[in-house]
Amino acid sequence: MKAKNQTRPIQRTDSYVLVIIKEGVFVMDDKRHRAGIAAILSFVFNGLGQLYVGKIKEGLIIMTISAASMILIIVGAVFAGHWIISRLFPIWELVVGLVFFASGIIIACVVGIQSINDAYKEALK
Prior knowledge:
Layout: E1 11-12, E2 16-21, E3 24-29, H1 30-44, H2 48-52, H3 56-86, H4 92-124
Antiparallel strand pairs: 1-2, 2-3
């Protein structure tokens, strides 16, 4: 007696995986699955998606830019926080802190969006 949901072996083609279940054929696109993983990795940390699809140099550059933007955010927060706590220094410390902080946030967002988009598109190629 056969079970209701029996599957036959998976057949691989160049860019698709065919899973045959009973009488129907379900097609899963390998490239789309790979692109989704690349996008998720780039969302977790900018540049990981590029490393996943094999673009090592671009991935390391994006990681470096992301790390620099995180440093800007931290330095900006330290400057602004120090001014708020002590208020011994002139207002320029607060302004510099806010500029660094805002610059870091903007750079991180722009690089992050670009990284996710690029990783997804590169994985589809």
